[in-house]
Hints:
Elements: H1 2-19, E1 30-31, E2 38-39, E3 46-49, E4 52-55, H2 59-67, H3 69-72
Antiparallel strand pairs: 1-2, 3-4
Amino acid sequence: xxxxxxxxxxxxxxxxxxxxxxxxxxxxxxxxxxxxxxxxxxxxxxxxxxxxxxxxxxxxxxxxxxxxxxxxxxx
Length: 75
């Protein structure tokens, strides 16, 4: 019985990992809107704001942007 539940749990974990949405990738080189550093094409640290991709150099810059994007978007 324990083997059955272990197999079921393992199968559920594998399914969850496989079924996750693929992460977005930055389509072209850019500039981090928070700190100004260059960001290379292909990074997965990406947010979309007003239909425009924004790439980030670090998770902390992405988190700052996501909290208040208008603060970092030039008008």
